[in-house]
Amino acid sequence: QVQLVESGGGLVQTGGSLRLSCAASGFTSNYYTIGWFRQAPGKEREGVSCINRSDGNTYYADSVKGRFTISRDNAKNTVYLQMSSLKPEDTAVYYCAAVSGLLTRLWVICPDPGRFGSWGQGTQVTISS
Fold first, then answer.
1. Which backbone phi and psi does 90 adopt, to 5 degrees?
2. What is the pLDDT of residue 118?
3. Which of 2, 33, 78, 111 has its CA 20 to 30 A from that of 59?
4. Strands (DSSP E) along 58-122, which ranges?
5. How confident is the model at residue 103 (pLDDT cuts 50, 70, 90)?
């Protein structure tokens, strides 16, 4: 059974930085993709970024390109989301999620939360203005 545990959320000022972590366990294969999603009150869940565990290919939503960096530490089965130049509109609950397989069209799959079958509990990120 796949388990995902997020950590690293908190309260920071505009322009600050945070690093989120997603610790993954229970996979039976090394071929899977971890995605980061966020959901603000009253809004739909949004795909932010994702990374293939096997080849390291990545995807970023336009809203975070140049400010967020996703990375992985395969030895620790952990994916990180380094968030910089944070804005109040980045405020949301951030979730990590997983989908099995070696994905190639990340720009199609990663924005769609319905593609991901396993989810963490979420971590709150609040950016004060």
1. -85, -5
2. 97
3. 2
4. 58-60, 68-73, 78-83, 92-100, 118-119
5. confident
Please name the residue that has the structure tokens 């951030």: 94
Give the span between the Cα atoms of 72 and 113, in whole angstroms.
20
Tokens read off for 52: 């293939």
Q: Which residues contact 58 (CB under 8 A, 6 or more apart)?
A: 49, 50, 51, 52, 70, 106
More confident residue, 101 or 111: 111
The CA distance from 22 to 6, in Å, is 4
Supply angle C-alpha 118, 113, 3, rounded to 5: 15
Structure tokens at 2: 């796949």
